[in-house]
Structure formats: structure tokens, C-alpha cells
Input
Amino acid sequence: MEANDKKAKPKIKMAVYWGAACGGCCVSVLDVHEALFDVVAAADLVFWPIALDTKYKDVEAMADGEIDLTLYNGAVRNSENEHIAHLLRKKSKILVAYGSCAHMGGIPGLANFSNREGIFERVYQTSESTVNPDRVRPQPVTKVKEGELTIPEFYNDVRTLDQVTDVDYYLPGCPPQTERLVEVFMAIVTGAELPPKGSVVGALEKTQCDECTRKKTENKKIKEFKRPIDFVDDGETCFLEQGVICMGPATRGGCGYRCIEGNAPCRGCYGPPADVPDPGARMMSAIGTMIDSNDEKEIQKIVEQIADPAGTFYRFSLPGSILRRKLL
Amino acid sequence: MEYHPTIVSFLCNWCSYTGADLAGTSRMKYAPNVRVIRVMCSGRVDPTFVLTAFEEGADGVLICGCHPGDCHYHEGNYKCLRRYKLLQMYLQQMGIEKDRLRLAWISASEGKQFAHLADEMTAAVKALGPCKIKENIETLS
Output
């Protein structure tokens, strides 16, 4: 990196962090492949736990606003995630909620169907491979003879990044399409005019359906809902018209409808399109128009074929939805 | 202090709002807990409206439209019925009691039925107690 031409303008400082995440978002940053050379030519990665051995204390030692760009991926599920979210906010000029989890809660957000006690009971008690007669549970503080051991506190709820701290931009996706990341990154590096704060970047304003090239008719009619495992896709007709839930109508485009291209219905990782606060509500609204029956009993029968409406419509967005969590 | 639930109602312009208006002009007494929002058609009631009402502290939501076959826009009330069925499934998965959301057909001449419905729903929601969604969201933020 040092060998790069000295006349080039100063490099920006960049950080990538994972909260409650699977690691896929960090890998999507690596997926820039050879463009990684352009990235490191333009940016110094000052903090990136998956790839670099930098410590939290290194970040704490930085001046406020010293980092130009931070990509925070993962939801906020424990006190460590929250602490680092606040820390990186303080140290960063631009904080991006990177990926579905930071944006809307993502897959870890499905934990909002339960709570800490429910999750601990399952994981440390009732799961088939667990034997725990003493009901040992993780404790934030444990006293041992050498002193106190601490681990982060596990929260009752999963939260999106912007429910915890101030976020400048959202880059959705599970994970975000790497090409979109490169575009956004280059815009920041070249000093292009940035969109207003709070914008969703690296995605379209409109829905998946707007881009999708499958055969569609003006008025979709659904008589029966099927699960993807229970039907044979003809490979060219709109999934909804074939009776399979596809989140396309309630999901922002921009990924290049890659799942649909791969003959799998959209699951909604890009979050709702512009001006739609709640993807599930939009989906219920859209499906309500398509169900082909006016008879109450028949409608009931048809909607009951959707095995798990909440989990299906809010697969990536439960903490970021209007109701945020199940009432327990 | 006695608990007075807040019930947000969405009434369609052509039948149900006129029906509720009839209850008023006929000086019928009914529970004042039902807050009326007039919409052009029950088909205009986006599920977002219902969820937002709960988010902002409603204890119950009532949607009223024209009787089947009578919709001014032919099939808005059927769309509403389908959305209602989906919403009910979703709300129950979210731990929200079935009685907190209701859909009823009220024609322009059914002032009495509307008054009765308002009383009945108020009693049902009162029995359930306050809806905890708003409180829940506040502790989260």
C-alpha cells in the first residue's frame, strides 16, 4: 500500500464492523475481488475484525470523526454490539448500516418472536443435545478466584442500528451486492455529491417486480398458496401467479433480482421500497388484491395455506417493522 | 380510575360513515371510545394504517365497509376482507388478541347496528385491557 503513488490524494480511513451478523457482509466486502486493489489504493482499513488484528482500544484511541467511512453490519443484540455502535458513531464521519441486519434487523431479528428467557431456555435447556441439570446460564459477570470475568449482556430484543444510534446511510441486502458497494464506495472516495442523510443507497427506489423479467399479467389471481418445495416452477411465470409467495412487490429492487434469476422467489432482504414503512403490511396489501375469491370461508381457507405469514413477510425486517417484536 | 380503551375506526365514505352519521343524527347513544376516520372505501385501508394505529396507542381497531356486493367501487370491501384475514393471522402470531381488530359491514341505513357494534367492541376491548404495543416499543427505543 505504501508503494502507491505519493501524489494521489490522501487515503480515506475506513472501518468495517460486525454486530449480530453471520459474517456474510464482511465476506461481501472481500467479494470485490480485484477491485480490492482499488479499495486499498483509496482507503486505509483501520478497523476490520474479520480481517485485521486491530483492537477496540485502537478505535477508542482515535480522535472523534477520524474514520471517514464505517460500514456497520449486523444487528444490535447485546451490550458489546451497542457499545461499538456508539463508539464507531463517535469516531466516524459517515456511518453506514450495511446489510439487512443493520438496516432492518435481518435474520437475527427473527429472535424478536421470542425473548432472552425463551432463547436461553431453548438453547441451554430443552435443545435435544443439551444436558444441563444445574440450569447453568451465561452470566454477564462471573467471579473466579483470579477476579471477575465479563461477557457482553444478552439483550431481550434485537434492534436495528438506527434504533441505537444515528445512521447516515443504509445499504441493504443479505448481503449487499458487491457491485453496489463498489459504486457507493467510489462515490465517497471521489467526493461525488452524496445523497441526503438517511437515504438508502446502492438500491433502487422501486420494487423487485419493476425489474423482474418473468411473465406477468395485469391482474394476478391466486386460488391456492404453495410452498416452494411443493410445486414445480415453470421457470418463466411470475412466482405469485404460480401461487408461491415472492416478496417482490414489497421489496426494493437493486440486487438484480438474483434469487428470481436463480429460480427462487424473492425473500425480501433489500427491505421495503421508498416510502413504504413496513414491508409486511405492503405484502399483505398486495396479496389481498391477488386472492381470487370473494367468499369469506374460501378466503380464510386460502390465507391459511400461508404457513407462517409473520415469518415470511418479515423474514429480514422484524425489528425494523412497525410492531418490532412479538408481545409476550 | 376506570379504564377507557381507545378504538380507532376506519369507516368507508359511502356506507359505514353514513351509517355512523345516522346513529348521530338519530341521537343514539353509544360508547365514545370509537374514534372515527373516514376513508373513501374500506379497500383504502392499508394494513399499515392498522399497524400504525396500534403503534400509536390504539387498544383496538375497527374497520367498517359496505355489505358484500354493495361496494361503491365494486370490490374494495372484498379486498379489505382478504387483507383483514391476513392481518388477523399476522397479529395473532405477534401476540395480539383477535378481538382487538374487527371488520364489520355497516350500510348507510344501519345507524343502530353501528351504535351497537361500537358498544360491543368497546366492551370486548375493555375486557382485554390496554394494548401493550406502544409501551413495548417505547421500552425498546
Observations:
- Chain A has a mean pLDDT of 93.
- The interface with chain B takes residues 113, 157, 159, 163, 276-278, 280-282, 284-285, 287-289, 291, 293-294, 296, 299-300, 303-304, 306, 308-311, 313, 321-328 of chain A (CB under 8 Å).
- The CA atoms of residues 1 and 37 of chain A lie 9 Å apart.
- Chain A has three domains: 12-108+157-189, 116-155, 208-313.
